[in-house]
Design goal:
By secondary structure, the chain is mostly helical. 28% of the residues lie in helices and 0% in strands. It has a domain of 54 residues.
């Protein structure tokens, strides 16, 4: 039993050491080029990337003239403040997803025990869910 524990510890230590440091690049020894083989092409040095261009350009393309004048006449604190407006669809909540019914509900109890509590409450997507209507339903009759 102690041998198995020792092996497991050794494997964990070696895995931790391997993941902690990237492997060193293996250098091949220089061999003299023979007449039959052509010399290998030299590796190209990495070219530096061009710096990012973060300039907006002409601001008047993106703003109306009155907004541009207001931005120029604004206080310094407002000039350095950036406001981004956008519409993002709200993702559906897991509690709003439809619940399984029948035998699927029992399967779901064991498959997803963290959401099993939802099966004991009324289904928010079920028939008659939601707030009651202020207008009463009309009762239909065939006769008096």
């Amino acid at each position: 039993m102690q041998v198995l524990i020792a092996i497991a510890v050794a494997l964990m230590v070696s895995a931790a050491a391997r993941s902690a440091e990237p492997p060193a690049a293996a250098k091949k020894p220089n061999k003299p080029a023979s007449a039959a083989t052509a010399p290998a092409p030299a590796a190209k040095p990495a070219t530096p990337r061009a710096p990012l261009k973060l300039q907006v350009g002409d601001v008047r393309k993106y703003m109306m003239p009155n907004e541009f004048i207001d931005a120029l006449s604004a206080a310094d604190a407002e000039k350095t403040t950036i406001i981004v407006q956008g519409d993002r669809p709200i993702p559906k909540l897991k509690s709003e997803q439809p619940l399984p019914e029948g035998l699927g509900a029992y399967y779901s109890l064991f498959r997803h025990p963290d959401t099993a509590w939802r099966l004991f409450l009324p289904d928010p997507n079920g028939v008659g869910s939601g707030p009651p209507s202020p207008v009463p339903e009309r009762e239909f009759r065939w006769g008096p």
